[in-house]
Design brief:
The protein has 350 residues and is α/β, with parallel strands linked by helices. Helix content is 38%, strand content 15%. The longest helix is centred in the last third of the chain and has 24 residues.
C-alpha cells in the first residue's frame, strides 16, 4: 500500500523516529530565538480570566488583527488574517488559490513544507534552482504557475532576494505571490508595503522567530481585503486559541522589545559569520537568525554535524542536493555560539 506523504515531512527540525530531546543541549537547529519574549506577554497570560479559557475564543481574532494592521501600516483588520502559525496560513493559501493539478512555484533550495503542501493538495511543485549566489534566475520568472511562494530571507540559505526583484516578480507573475517573511525582522528591509501596491501580493509573518513565541503557534498574513476574505472562507472556525491571541496582542504592543532582541541576534550573527569565514567556511550573507556554513574540507559536513551532536551541540544537516556540504546554524546567545565555535576549532584542529 502506498501511504500519503506525512505533513511532518515538511516540518522544521522533524526527523522521523527521532528520540525525545536530550537535556542540557545547545540547541541550534530550529531557528528559535535565544531570548525571552516581552514581559508583557507573560503578564497578559497571567491575567487571563477563567472565562477566557471556558469560552470559545474570538473566531476572527479581530483585536489582534487590528493591532497587526496598525503596526504594519494598514487601515484595519480586513487587511490581515491570523493563523495557527505561518504553516497554517501557507496551507490556507494553497487551499484558497490552487486547484488539484495546478502548479506551485518556489525556489530550490528552500523550506520543504512548500513542496509537501503542494503534493498533499494534488498540485505540482515546480522547484526552480537558485543560482550560485542563491538568487532567482530567469528560468524562475519564465515558469508558469498558479501560486508562487517566495521566502525572503530564504531558508536554509539566509539570503534575501532584492526588493526590486520581488517587485518584478509581482508585476510579471500571473497568479498569487506569497512573500514568506518569517525571518524578515533580522534583515535590512522588508516587503510589507507590497499588498498596497500589488493586487496579487500576500506578505506572511510569524511570531515564532523574532517575537520568541514559537510555542504559541501564531502567524499573520497581510493582503488586500478581497484576498483575506478568501482565506476566511476556508479557515477553521476557531483556528487561534485565546491564549495565543492574548500573547500575540501583548507582543505586538511591545514591538520595541522584539526589535531589541532582533538587534542582539544580528550582532551575534555578524560576529559568528566573520569567525566561521576565518575558519575556512563559506558563509552566504545571511539576513536571518541563522547562517549556512558550507564546508568543502575534511571531515565532511555530515561528520561535523554528527560530532557536534555527540558533544550535545545540535545544528541542522540536510541530506539534500546542493546542501550536502553545509550545516545550518541557528544564532543562539553569545555563550552558546562560543561553545559551538570552540567545538568546531577542536574538531577541525584549528
Amino acid at each position: 500500500m502506498k501511504y500519503r506523504r506525512s505533513i511532518l515531512d515538511g516540518v522544521e527540525g522533524y526527523v522521523p523516529g527521532e528520540q525525545p530531546r536530550m537535556p542540557n543541549i545547545v540547541k541550534l537547529n530550529t531557528n528559535e530565538n535565544p531570548y525571552p519574549p516581552s514581559p508583557r506577554v507573560l503578564e497578559a497570560l497571567r491575567g487571563l480570566s477563567p472565562d477566557a479559557l471556558r469560552r470559545y475564543p474570538d473566531p476572527l481574532a479581530v483585536e489582534l488583527r487590528a493591532e497587526c494592521a496598525k503596526q504594519y501600516g494598514y487601515d484595519g483588520p480586513e487587511w490581515v488574517i491570523a493563523g495557527n502559525g505561518m504553516d497554517e496560513l501557507l496551507s490556507l493559501a494553497v487551499r484558497s488559490f490552487v486547484d488539484p493539478g495546478d502548479t506551485i512555484l518556489t525556489p530550490y533550495p528552500t523550506y520543504t513544507l512548500y513542496e509537501t503542501l503542494a503534493l498533499l493538495h494534488g498540485a505540482k511543485a515546480a522547484l526552480v534552482d537558485l543560482d550560485e549566489s542563491f538568487q532567482l534566475t530567469e528560468t524562475f520568472f519564465n515558469t508558469a504557475a498558479r501560486l508562487c511562494i517566495l521566502p525572503r530571507p530564504n531558508a536554509p540559505t539566509g539570503v534575501c532576494v532584492p526588493r526590486e526583484t520581488v517587485e518584478r516578480l509581482c508585476r510579471s507573475f500571473d497568479g498569487i505571490v506569497v512573500i514568506d517573511e518569517a525571518y524578515v525582522d533580522f534583515s535590512d528591509d522588508n516587503c510589507m508595503d507590497f499588498p498596497k501596491r500589488f493586487d496579487n501580493a500576500i506578505v506572511m509573518r510569524t511570531f515564532s522567530k523574532s517575537f520568541s513565541l514559537a510555542g504559541m503557534r501564531l502567524g499573520t498574513a497581510v493582503a488586500r481585503p478581497e484576498i483575506i476574505a478568501e482565506f476566511l472562507k476556508v479557515k477553521d472556525s476557531y483556528n487561534l486559541n485565546a491564549v495565543a491571541q492574548a500573547a500575540g496582542l501583548a507582543a505586538m504592543r511591545d514591538y520595541s522589545h522584539m526589535t531589541a532582541n532582533a538587534e542582539k541576534v544580528r550582532a551575534t550573527r555578524l560576529r559568528v559569520t566573520a569567525i566561521l569565514r576565518e575558519m575556512g567556511f563559506t558563509v552566504p550573507e545571511s539576513q536571518s537568525n541563522f547562517v549556512l556554513a558550507q564546508w568543502d574540507g575534511r571531515p565532511s559536513a555530515q561528520i561535523l554535524f554528527e560530532t557536534l551532536r555527540e558533544r550535545a551541540i545540535v545544528v541542522r544537516y540536510f541530506k539534500a542536493r546542493r546542501l550536502e556540504n553545509a550545516i545550518r546554524i541557528s544564532i543562539g546567545t553569545d555563550e552558546e555560539m562560543d561553545l559551538l565555535l570552540g567545538s568546531l576549532r577542536e574538531i577541525l584542529a584549528i
